Amino acid sequence: xxxxxxxxxxxxxxxxxxxxxxxxxxxxxxxxxxxxxxxxxxxxxxxxxxxxxxxxxxxxxxxxxxxxxxxxxxxxxxxxxxxxxxxxxxxxxxxxxxxxxxxxxxxxxxxxxxxxxxxxxxxxxxxxxxxxxxxxxxxxxxxxxxxxxxxxxxxxxxxxxxxxxxxxxxxxxxxxxxxxxxxxxxxxxxxxxxxxxxxxxxxxxxxxxxxxxxxxxxxxxxxxxxxxxxxxxxxxxxxxxxxxxxxxxxxxxxxxxxxxxxxxxxxxxxxxxxxxxxxxxxxxxxxxxxxxxxxxxxxxxxxxxxxxxxxxxxxxxxxxxxxxxxxxxxxxxxxxxxxxxxxxxxxxxxxxxxxxxxxxxxxxxxxxxxxxxxxxxxxxxxxxxxxxxxxxxxxxxxxxxxxxxxxxxxxxxxxxxxxxxxxxxxxxxxxxxxxxxxxxxxxxxxxxxxxxxxx
Length: 455
Description:
This protein is of the alpha+beta class. The chain has three domains: 85 residues, 2-Layer Sandwich (Double Stranded RNA Binding Domain), CATH 3.30.160; 117 residues; 184 residues, Intergrase catalytic core (hpI Integrase, Chain A). The protein is built from 18 helices and eight strands. It has a five-stranded mixed β-sheet, with helices on one face. Helix 11 crosses helix 15. The chain starts with a strand and ends in a 19-residue tail after the last helix.
């Protein structure tokens, strides 16, 4: 250390500079042991501390710029560093340890922040991960959902607000309601407790009991899945969906039994065939005679209809699709329809291009015929009931309707060809038409013909 020592004052610190031709000069403070001021040729200045370690090695430490460090603060820092040296501690290592500790604290705080953000995130994010894990993917093994199950899960969290394309019940608006689980899953997963679920279920059961029951079952499966995942295990309350909760909060399910009776067939067919829209009239008759579900019939494309080999491929909510016989009367109904687009039951006014809401015309036909209320699904139920009049084996009518087999023999041994199904399906159709007073067309009466678009 040179003899260039003065008592540091703010003025002296500000006036000190490096002489021309030198790289750096030092000025030392007489009031603080080891405190100095370094001025560089470029004009910068730094407070420094120069001292000797216990090993005898000389060290010089930078304290800081006088523009940001007051003289008093620089003296205090010099004393602190000198105290460390007197204790045998190298301030350079102490600085590295302090920086490392600060970095570790920042990293810990970041982990806590991310964890808190994850915990506070809506359970909807975990629900989407659940759907992605179960989504059917080509070439991926394991048990995966079918398209219908996937659609059910997506609908339960749909934001709603879309224009309705089907009929509305009294008091309903013109737009779709939010999915039954959306409000609940907007809460953090750890806050979906039994009390929370009970309050939600009670409210939903009063508005839409069928959807509430489905949502409750799917929510329970979701929480069980979360309890098995390490990232959600500590947040999921598996006991939030107790079995007694559904029993206590949901209304008792009453099975529907709307069905056409034998003596009502004549009046029903007469009223339906008077409907001015030929697409709706054909749709209703096809739904009854095919025993299919509402959307399975509405979703038939022309490419699914084989007039030559008398088969009809329709959607199936379980297996995706199934092939059933194309019976003579149904074939005549379809052959007479206009080919506006890809859909058999087309609609020039619907955005989808196909029939969306046949219930209005059906209800008018029921009223005109003096018949009791009958849902579109009731036509499917009617097919199953009327099939027994011709003593059709239960397994055959179930296969036509797309019901899964229940008996061991049905599951593993009976593989009925389409011809065998056609024999019984044609018999069922012929009996229904006879009871309705309608002549069934012969196979030669059904053929391809050009039909002009009726827009």
